[in-house]
Amino acid sequence: MIAQERCVSVKLRHEHYLDRWLGLYQLDRYKIWLFKGLLRILRRYVSNGRILDLGCAKGYLVEMLNLNGYSAIGVDISLTALRNGVRNVDKVRSDAENIPFRDCSFDGVFAVHTLEHFPNPYSAVSEVFRVLKPGGCFLAVTPDKDSLIAKLGYKVVKYTALKNPYHVSLMNRRELKDLVRKAGFSEFAILPFHNGFLGTPFIGFIPIPISTRILIPFSHHQLLIAIK
Question: What CATH number is attached to the domain comprising 173?
Answer without folding.
Answer: 3.40.50.150
